[in-house]
Design a protein that fits this description.
Blueprint lengths: L1 H23 L15 E3 L4 H10 L2 E2 H4 L4 H22 L7 E8 L5 E8 L8 H13 L11 E8 L10 E3 L2 E6 L5 E3 L5
Parallel strand pairs: 1-4, 2-5
Antiparallel strand pairs: 3-4, 3-5, 6-7, 7-8
Length: 192
């Protein structure tokens, strides 16, 4: 009985010392700020900094576009197309790349950060070269949208991009005629 009491007292004293050390030690600050977070990084890396980015960029692209899905898509598509054009301009090959992107914009449309992850069916890319490409792209690109708050979008892209689908539009000379998604002229009454 005396041994059990002795062991219990020793355990309580050691536990108290551990609790005191935990309470009095300052917390370790391993949270990255937006200033120390790389502009471009792989999703899953820099989790604390990524979490802070998502808190700072709570408005979604769709919300920034007044919940207009077509406008949000057009703006996203515009950025992906500009990315592809920039790659062609500098001679960087994106063809075959399939990627998930989480893009964070400032109020003025400048890109503050890009978090990415290559899809499993993407061609192999040198990550250092890809990150350098993204960094150069965001230094030379401004998104065509001004907002009252920072915003973000999580989406995917595949390169080369496919031609955009056109909306059906009535021609000025005939209310019944339209341009379909592949640019053919047709009539609502008859066959194309």
């Amino acid at each position: 009985m005396r041994n059990i009491l002795f062991i219990l007292v020793v355990c309580l004293l050691s536990l108290q010392g551990t609790l005191n050390a935990t309470i009095t030690d300052p917390p370790i600050d391993n949270c990255e700020t937006q200033d120390t977070l790389p502009k471009v990084f792989v999703l899953g890396d820099h989790e604390d900094g990524f979490e802070q980015l998502t808190l700072d960029h709570q408005m979604l692209l769709l919300t920034a576009c007044n919940d207009d899905m077509d406008e949000a898509f057009d703006k996203w598509w515009s950025m992906i197309s500009e990315m592809e054009a920039y790659a062609d301009l500098i001679g960087y090959d994106l063809k075959g790349m399939k990627i998930w992107l989480n893009v964070f914009w400032e109020k003025d449309g400048s890109v503050s950060h890009i978090a990415y992850h290559l899809k499993p069916n993407s061609k192999n890319m040198q990550l250092e070269d890809l990150e350098s490409f993204f960094e150069n792209f965001i230094n030379n690109y401004k998104f065509p949208l001004l907002t009252s708050a920072k915003f973000s979008h999580y989406g995917s892209a595949s390169f080369p991009t496919l031609p955009r689908r056109l909306k059906k539009t009535k021609l000025p000379n005939d209310n019944q005629t339209f341009i379909d998604s592949v640019g053919k002229t047709g009539s609502k009454k008859g066959k194309d």
